[in-house]
């Protein structure tokens, strides 16, 4: 009986050992499946290393997983919103530091305008200045008739010999036919534009006397380059204004004790003297030579006045 009981106890112990071993195997197989290891009876250290590798793999797969569109948009908005806030803060700070300009009153603006340096206007060209002066002296309401003498700016004394009608395009135009005997030339000027072109009637005897008295005055020579003065003299001669022509004669005249004229000065002086003399001859009803002699009489008076 004692032997039977001992054998039964030993068989029960062996069966319990086999059951415990089976349970251990099952748990080891479960751990191996979760960690990915192959050996079911690995030691504890190898199990711990395998568990660490599994955790690192899972973190890598999570990091390498592609982002969805919602996640991308979320990151973009977050990144764009951050610098904007910074710039908004900076702009608020800068605007707070900059002082607000005060509005200027009318008196202050006027004072500022007065303090600014003023630029002088450009000088007017001699020809334009002379033309404006001659136009201001000219009578714009004067009328012209056939067989009368007139003064044309660029040619001097002329005689209106005829009144013609010509068709230019679809229009019929009336023209004055002017004969310049000293230049052997005829000129046709539209009747409607005769006064605008500078054409005028002969001066009166009182105007001739005033122009001759002007020759007795002192010459007014500007201290500028000769080329500029020559342009002004030529513009005066061709202006058709009697006073302007007399001024050229007065300014370019040289007495015997004065330095001689240059060639260009002599030419301009003779041109102005002839233009002036022809009008004097036409008004006084005398020849050109006698008119020039009368001009020189007044120029000699000027010489005597300067000598005193």
From TrEMBL:
Region (Disordered): 1-122
Biased composition (Basic and acidic residues): 103-118
Domain CarD-like/TRCF RNAP-interacting: 143-253
Domain of life of the source: Bacteria
Biased composition (Low complexity): 1-21, 34-48, 56-81
Gene3D superfamilies xrefs: 2.40.10.170, CarD-like, C-terminal domain (1.20.58.1290)
PANTHER family, per database record: RNA POLYMERASE-BINDING TRANSCRIPTION FACTOR CARD, TRANSCRIPTION FACTOR YDEB-RELATED
Protein name per Swiss-Prot or TrEMBL: Transcriptional regulator
Organism of this sequence: Parvularcula bermudensis (strain ATCC BAA-594 / HTCC2503 / KCTC 12087)
Source taxonomy: Bacteria, Pseudomonadati, Pseudomonadota, Alphaproteobacteria, Parvularculales
């Amino acid at each position: 009986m004692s032997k039977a009981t001992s054998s039964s106890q030993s068989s029960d112990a062996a069966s319990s050992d086999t059951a415990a071993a089976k349970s251990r195997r099952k748990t080891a197989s479960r751990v191996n499946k979760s960690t990915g290891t192959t050996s079911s009876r690995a030691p504890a250290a190898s199990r711990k290393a395998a568990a660490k590798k599994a955790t690192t793999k899972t973190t890598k797969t999570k990091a390498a997983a592609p982002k969805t569109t919602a996640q991308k948009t979320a990151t973009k908005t977050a990144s764009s919103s951050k610098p904007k806030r910074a710039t908004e803060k900076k702009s608020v700070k800068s605007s707070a530091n900059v002082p607000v300009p005060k509005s200027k009153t009318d008196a202050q603006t006027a004072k500022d305008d007065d303090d600014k340096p003023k630029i002088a206007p450009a000088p007017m060209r001699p020809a334009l200045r002379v033309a404006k002066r001659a136009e201001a002296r000219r009578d714009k309401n004067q009328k012209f008739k056939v067989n009368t003498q007139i003064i044309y700016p660029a040619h001097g004394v002329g005689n209106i010999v005829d009144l013609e009608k010509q068709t230019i395009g679809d229009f019929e135009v009336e023209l004055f036919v002017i004969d310049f005997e000293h230049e052997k030339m005829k000129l046709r000027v539209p009747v409607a534009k005769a006064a605008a072109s500078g054409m005028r009637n002969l001066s009166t005897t009182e105007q001739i006397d005033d122009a001759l008295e002007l020759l007795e005055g002192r010459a007014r020579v500007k201290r500028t380059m000769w080329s500029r003065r020559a342009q002004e003299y030529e513009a005066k001669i061709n202006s058709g204004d009697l006073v302007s022509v007399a001024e050229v004669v007065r300014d370019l005249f040289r007495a015997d004790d004065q330095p001689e004229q240059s060639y260009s000065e002599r030419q301009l002086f003779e041109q102005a003297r002839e233009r002036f003399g022809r009008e004097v001859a036409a008004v006084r009803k005398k020849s050109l030579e006698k008119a020039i002699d009368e001009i020189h009489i007044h120029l000699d008076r000027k010489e005597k006045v300067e000598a005193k």
